[in-house]
Amino acid sequence: xxxxxxxxxxxxxxxxxxxxxxxxxxxxxxxxxxxxxxxxxxxxxxxxxxxxxxxxxxxxxxxxxxxxxxxxxxxxxxxxxxxxxxxxxxxxxxxxxxxxxxxxxxxxxxxxxxxxxxxxxxxxxxxxxxxxxxxxxxxxxxxxxxxx
Length: 148
Fold this sequence. Notes:
By secondary structure, the protein is α/β, with parallel strands linked by helices. The chain contains four helices and five strands; from the N terminus they run E-H-E-H-E-H-E-H-E.
């Protein structure tokens, strides 16, 4: 039925549960997965008149380190997938709107199902469903399975 699942994660415990369910589903369908993590873009909190000469260097260093951390987390999940017999690719990207990156990754990787947690680290912002999950559900043309 499904051949390629996208499994987004923010590293939260609930996202971890969705990954476990997604890997089990992939194994049952003999499908492959793409694991994706979206790293927030670097933002300087300063007035325009406040000059920060090293902001470009800081941004570059932040994004490089954040992507490396995300990739490390994804590699561990990739190993977990391999142990359960599921082929997994990893994608770590930056973006201020994670739902857009998730949808873009699903489209560019030709995934036919997105399996994601009902909510992540955002706490009370999304009481029943997290805001990113709702946005993916609302805007994605790819079917989405929400794991609670």
